[in-house]
Design brief:
mainly alpha, Arc Repressor Mutant, subunit A, 3-stranded antiparallel beta sheet, 6 helices, 3 strands, globular
């Protein structure tokens, strides 16, 4: 029971990352994994995991960087075959960014490493505390999704 609770809790934390870590504390991701990937690249993957195929403009906005900075970041990820840029069919001036199969594999390794490290942080906590934390994280994520939907519809 406790291991299932920890698993659900860690998944909830990982799902929370794009909501508040991308815009605030990228330093928290610095040693998330033994795989060589920058904090900004990791943030890019987190965003694309939730919204694969974002336009360069929207991805830059989500990351809080300028398009020129994103162009270089995406170019470097493309060189490693982790993402690909595809022209938008509906708007010829727009280019969308997608995670490749290799990118999914590398990102999966990073997430697995992060999952394992986070899981170890909770191993000695009692079940009542874990249940409470999970409940509150789910509530926070629910509110953040509602805020995002409200802002998207404006």
């Amino acid at each position: 029971m406790k291991s299932a609770l920890i698993k659900e809790l860690v998944n909830e934390i990982i799902d929370s990352i794009p909501n508040y870590i991308v815009k605030s504390s990228l330093n928290a991701l610095e040693n998330f994994s033994g795989i060589k990937i920058s904090k900004l690249q990791f943030s890019t993957f987190i965003i694309l995991k939730h919204e694969n195929g974002l336009s360069m403009k929207n991805l830059a906005l989500r990351l809080g960087i300028i398009k020129q900075q994103l162009t270089r970041l995406v170019f470097n990820l493309e060189k490693e075959k982790l993402v690909k840029r595809i022209p938008n069919k509906d708007n010829k001036r727009e280019v969308n960014v997608f995670i490749t199969q290799k990118g999914l594999e590398v990102f999966g390794e990073v997430l697995e490493n992060a999952f394992n490290r986070l899981s170890m942080q909770f191993i000695n906590e009692d079940e009542a505390k874990l249940t409470s934390l999970l409940f509150h994280l789910k509530e926070i994520n629910k509110i953040l999704r509602e805020v995002k939907e409200t802002n998207t519809n404006d």
